[in-house]
Amino acid sequence: MTEQNRKLPQVNNIRGLGKLGIFNVEALDVKFSNGQEREYYRLHANHDGVTVIAVDQEHLLLIEEYSAGTLNYELGFVRGGIDDQEEILVAAERELAEEIGYQANNYEHLISFYNSTGYQTAQMHVVVATGLTPLEVMPEGDEPEPLTLVRWPLDQLDSLISHPTFRDCRNLAALYAFRDYVRAGKLGACHT
Question: Any idea where the Nudix hydrolase domain is (predicted)?
Answer without folding.
Answer: 45-174
